[in-house]
Amino acid sequence: MAIHEKSLIEPERLLKHDSLVVDGVDVSGHWNTMIAPRTITDYDDDFEAKIQKYGGGENVHRCWQCGSCTNSCTVYAQNVQFNPRYWIYLIRLGLKEEIVKDKDIIWQCVSCNKCTDICPKDVRPEGVMKALSHWMEDEGITGKSPSKIFDEEFLDQIYKTGRIEDGKVVQNFFKKTGQSLFQDWLRVFMLRMMKGLPIMHLMRMGWNTVHTPRTRSWGRTGEVLKAYVQEQKEARHG
Amino acid sequence: MGDTVLVVGAGPAGLSAAANVTAAGYKVVMVEKEEVLGGAPILSGYARLVPSGEWAKDAIGRMVSRVEEDANCTVHKNAKVTQLDGEAGNFTATLSNGETVKAGAVVLATGFTHFDSINKPEWGFGTYEDVLTTTQMEQMVSSGKIICPSDGRVPERVAILLCVGSRDRQIGREWCSKICCTVSANLAMEIKEISPGTDVFIYYMDIRTYGLYEDKFYWKSQEEFKTKFVKARIAEVTASGDGRLLVKGEDTLVKRPIVIPFDIVVHAIGMDPNEDNPEISRIFGVGLEKHGFIERAEHYTNTCGTTRRGIYSCGAAYAPETIDDSISQGAAAGARAVADLHALVRKAG
């Protein structure tokens, strides 16, 4: 007999061999289906400290699980799977595998900060959600968010030239996020700009986008800056 | 005699009652069944007390020497009251050492008995050497060294299980023992202080660090000493096979079964009625309430009263009680006893 209500069991816990013979008896296929237990067998004692090193996660150890954050949460009202209280508990005990299961919703925090306002222990759950999202990004558990891609493009230009070219940032951002450059708002923006006829400005923008000049005497500053940022990051997160 | 109060039991409550009676100018005869004074904090070797943080032997030691040096206080150690005759204002007590005491009033400061963890065999006490009670852990803290009794290694992880012998209908303990949450939070901090590499987990159903104990013990242990509080009532403690212990239960916040390895498991044992209470009830003619503690009289106008006139009680004899509140109640019971004597003196005069 097959297992009823398989949908209630996480797929990775359903163990099945396509062909299996035990003591001469062929039990291939669903006959050998087993369900791995849901038991939690250990805590990761260092995980809480790791999250605390991300901005916003510093106070996570204060939580006593009252549930005020979840209760006040804007996103929870839309989706009961979005439960900051629960994730904070998982962080505290280091139950990483459980957290990763919710990787596709944790980043949905809208930063309304109602949780942070209401928290009786000053855990600042909104910050914890941010810290958690950043950790998942760093670990490659979630893809890069559009804002992260924007930041990277921005920084990349600084390192290289010591300055930002707006036109180039916008162009590369749209390219890297797979968006069309012909956005309605951008067209309106450009048209209005042309209407004022700042010809020299437009020409300079065009020229700079193509030639990407460096700030005067920039030299090795970009490399040093990049190395320093990397060093700081490593010192923080190891 | 109209100027003497008989105080039974020399724990924090009894010592406080005695000191307050003599301070009012009356005499005390104190009867203690053990050979040392001080009660549970001294007999069980408690470490630092809640909430003062003073070592038990210093704090309670002061109370003991105050009574021992008091010329108006006669102490009978290793003795019990075997018979009590008479009535309020004119009691005669016969002691097990053959002495007879005449007293105008009696204060029963007979305290409690620690819950015996053997009665919850599924939690491994008596089976595994590294399963301890809070009193044993207090003694370990007093010794200044946190190690596994089985092989002397420093524990990586200690689990404290709350409500052992409390809030458990299965074993007829339907009361909260009141002190264990705070004592456990305090113990977690003491363990971390002595052994910074040891992580302490407290398994709880509710945390009842009431009043000012909230931030001073619960919050502090969590925020400054990184104690982790896990909401689970443990089902079973077993051996892991590699020298550690496995704590099994359900984490009710994750809704998942847990089987977590630990090096030491501590039972936060509760307070039972004094095991001698049936005998005390018979000898002194006082009633016991349904759990077996001494029955409290109507409290509003008969504070510290029992079911028998002229006999007062205080502290953990009535119900699970903190040391500080036992001391306050002892003073109150002393005042009630003294008021009886004072009325007698006025009548005689």
From TrEMBL, chain A:
Family matches, as Pfam families: Fer4_8 (PF13183)
What protein name does the entry list?
Answer: Heterodisulfide reductase subunit C
> Where does this protein come from, organism-wise?
Thioalkalivibrio denitrificans
Entry keyword set: Iron, Iron-sulfur, Metal-binding
**Gene Ontology MF terms:** iron-sulfur cluster binding; metal ion binding
Domain named 4Fe-4S ferredoxin-type is located at: 97-129
PROSITE patterns linked to this entry = 4FE4S_FER_1, 4FE4S_FER_2
- Any Gene Ontology CC annotation: plasma membrane
**Entry-linked InterPro entries:** 4Fe4S_Fe-S-bd, 4Fe4S_Fe_S_CS, HdrC_iron-sulfur_subunit, Helical_ferredxn
Higher taxonomy: Bacteria, Pseudomonadati, Pseudomonadota, Gammaproteobacteria, Chromatiales
Source domain of life: Bacteria
Keyword Cell division tagged = no
What PANTHER family does the record tag this protein with? HETERODISULFIDE REDUCTASE RELATED PROTEIN, IRON-SULFUR-BINDING OXIDOREDUCTASE FADF-RELATED-RELATED
UniProtKB/TrEMBL annotation, chain B:
One Pfam family named in its UniProt record: Pyr_redox_2
Citing just one GO molecular function, the answer is: oxidoreductase activity
Coiled-coil segments, which residues?
none
Domain of life where this protein originates: Bacteria
Concerning SUPFAM superfamilies, the annotation shows: Nucleotide-binding domain (SSF51971)
Q: Per its UniProt record, what PANTHER family does this chain match?
A: ANAEROBIC GLYCEROL-3-PHOSPHATE DEHYDROGENASE SUBUNIT B
Protein name (record): Pyridine nucleotide-disulfide oxidoreductase
Q: What is the originating organism of this protein?
A: Thioalkalivibrio denitrificans
